Amino acid sequence: MKKFKLGEIKIKKADPQQLTDKLLLINLYITQGLTLFIGLIWILLQKRNPIHILNFPENAHFVFWGLGLAAVMLVVDFLLTHIVPEDSMDDGGINELLFGNRPLWHIIVIAAIVAVCEELLFRGAIQHSLGPYWTSILFAVIHVRYLRHWIPTGWVFLSSYGLGYIYIHSGSLWAPILCHFLIDLFSGMVIRYRRAS
């Protein structure tokens, strides 16, 4: 039996064009599963109940916060795509690969899973410990595909800060979840149907 040597592991930059659709989806779902698991463990270590954090609010106040921020973010994103050179907003083609040929139902599923998992970790767990500013820095850093350009990195930071803001003011995690879902859904649909046309 061959011995495993840690020094033989080689890490190289992956070209997005080398990713198969199956590998991309496996990576996405494993990443989101880990995000959910870490978020739940972090919340439990804070001696808080994740079910209580995800309780659905009694009133629809959170909807206005989620829809309002989503509308603002979509307008700013639209302006950025028309003002800023396209290469400075490049994510390496990952979003195009993820959503370009995806059916609408699967875009909805992806947007929902990402919104719940990431918001539970970042707003539900990390923001409780670090506050919205440091949470937003961490959120921008984990979106590593944007780090090559300062404009999308700054935009991810501001978006995260906005999500933290509406979480505080709405008092419900469902406000940032709704906003995050709508942004990802709309972005995925634009990529999907722009390519189709």
Automatic annotation (TrEMBL):
The keyword tRNA processing does not apply. Keywords: Hydrolase, Membrane, Metalloprotease, Protease, Transmembrane, Transmembrane helix. Pfam families: Rce1-like (PF02517). One of its GO terms (molecular function) is metallopeptidase activity. Residues 103-186 form the CAAX prenyl protease 2/Lysostaphin resistance protein A-like domain. The chain crosses the membrane at residues 23-44, 64-84, 104-121, 171-191. The keyword Hydrolase applies. PANTHER family: CAAX AMINO TERMINAL PROTEASE FAMILY PROTEIN, SLR1288 PROTEIN. This is CPBP family intramembrane metalloprotease. It comes from Paenibacillus phytohabitans.
